[in-house]
Amino acid sequence: xxxxxxxxxxxxxxxxxxxxxxxxxxxxxxxxxxxxxxxxxxxxxxxxxxxxxxxxxxxxxxxxxxxxxxxxxxxxxxxxxxxxxxxxxxxxxxxxxxxxxxxxxxxxxxxxxxxxxxxxxxxxxxxxxxxxxxxxxxxxxxxxxxxxxxxxxxxxxxxxxxxxxxxxxxxxxxxxxxxxxxxxxxxxxxxxxxxxxxxxxxxxxxxxxxxxxxxxxxxxxxxxxxxxxxxxxxxx
Length: 236
Fold this sequence. Notes:
By secondary structure, the protein is an alpha+beta fold. It has 5 helices and 5 strands, in the order ααβββααββα. It has helices at about 15-70, 70-75, 135-140, 155-170, 195-235; strands spanning about 80-105, 105-120, 125-130, 170-175, 185. Strands 4-1-2-3-5 form a 5-stranded mixed beta sheet. Strand 2 and strand 3 (about 125-130) form a beta hairpin. The longest helix is centred in the first third of the chain and has 56 residues, at about 15-70.
């Protein structure tokens, strides 16, 4: 008969190893949960960064489009000073020819009355011809308003006469003039004034700020996540 002598286990050693194994299991579960969270957050962070970059790119494109349209026209306009014009004379001088589209490769001629309006700027005695806006000034340097050409010339005549009556009824109207006096004509309205320029730049500016804010928030979240992980490692 053989007797095998073994070492007796010390009291409490089994409980300690069991506690270590339970702690290790909890630690493995915690690490697995953190990995799952990081894995789930990373695609969301990537999509958020792409969204922010897309918003910034779109705002830059909008700035470019506005720069070659509204801002360019606003900067090139010489009618920058606003004043008060007193209507001195508003008369129809002659009929002007215009062409309208009547179909595919079809153009026909119609007529509209040319309304000439003369005003005194800021009661200075300077008499100038009044135009509706920059587009009218470029189209016709003689007429106050150029209507959209149409077949019914009578309708255009009625429209011009109504404008003439309104100008005669309102003796004083706001207007824009060239302070350097290189342009003798004055304008009743501007195509793009200061308020239109501000409103047109508002949306791309908000889009640019929003895109940059999204990227900053994602980067800040990533930095805080790494900082929290490093602090956790130090405590262990």
